[in-house]
Design goal:
Length: 131
């Protein structure tokens, strides 16, 4: 792990703990959250024929047999408000995380037209495809 990744993780930890008054309060929250994630994973494995609808943000740490990424178009992924380099990198990271959630198959969908206007495929898809 490089220094930039470590700093990003440290920043996420700082942000995560900012709403708690004590370390013990925050640590209890983390333990409870971890237990809930494990329960969700166990329920998911018990229901093999289930569909889970989630955002790229909430897919972190989870895996699915098949993943569909919808709206892989410029202005959606990356979001049109992502103008700074740091914002664009965060969008790219989220897209990568979403792609790597697939254990067997990944389907990435885009549209040619959105709201009666031409829509371009996401630059992230083009980067992934090596174009």
């Amino acid at each position: 792990m490089d220094a930039e990744e470590l700093l990003e993780i440290a920043e996420q930890l700082k942000e995560s703990g900012s709403g708690f008054k004590t370390f013990e309060e925050w640590f209890t929250h983390i333990r409870n959250y971890s237990a809930r994630l494990k329960e969700q994973a166990a329920r998911r494995q018990a229901r093999e024929d289930a569909v889970t609808l989630s955002t790229m943000h909430s897919a972190k740490g989870l895996e699915y047999r098949v993943v569909y990424i919808l709206d892989a178009n410029e202005g959606v992924t990356p979001h049109h408000k992502a103008v700074l380099d740091a914002d664009m990198e965060e969008e790219r990271r989220l897209f990568y995380v979403a792609m790597t959630r697939a254990k067997e198959r990944l389907h990435v969908m885009s549209v040619r037209e959105r709201y009666h206007k031409k829509a371009d495929i996401s630059r992230f898809v083009e980067e992934y495809m090596g174009e």
